[in-house]
Hints:
This protein is mainly alpha-helical. It folds into two domains: 14-77, Arc Repressor Mutant, subunit A (Orthogonal Bundle); 86-126. The protein contains five helices and two strands; from the N terminus they run αααββαα. β1 (67-70) and β2 (74-77) form a beta hairpin. The longest helix has 20 residues, at 86-105. The two termini are 32 Å apart.
Amino acid sequence: MIEFQLDTACGVATYLQLVQQVHQALRLVLLEPGDQLPTAQQVVAKLAINPNTVLKAYRDLEREGLVRPRPGQGTFVIASLSHTDPATQARLLSSMTSWLRSARSAGLGPDEIEAIYRTAFRNYFAEGVA
């Protein structure tokens, strides 16, 4: 089951952060059709947010055709966003984690690491490689 986390400093609305995290989990095959999302009560208890915020996020995901509520049971994933092999994703995630560990060992902080990643990402895709 997905564990939502909030970044209060990022400037993104709370419900959108929840939606984005579900999208990300679907792309990485951390969530698959049939999986249940945490109940609104569970999310509210963990994150101390308004229940309407969770319900809004879940309604957005339902409108996108990604989840479906089952009365009395919860909200379940009904679609996937992944278009790549899970083994390939796992290998790349492991490689990225290793790179992050090396960057931290070299004394870089989270902001510097993010700046390097974003610059490399922009440069790579600006070259028209995608």
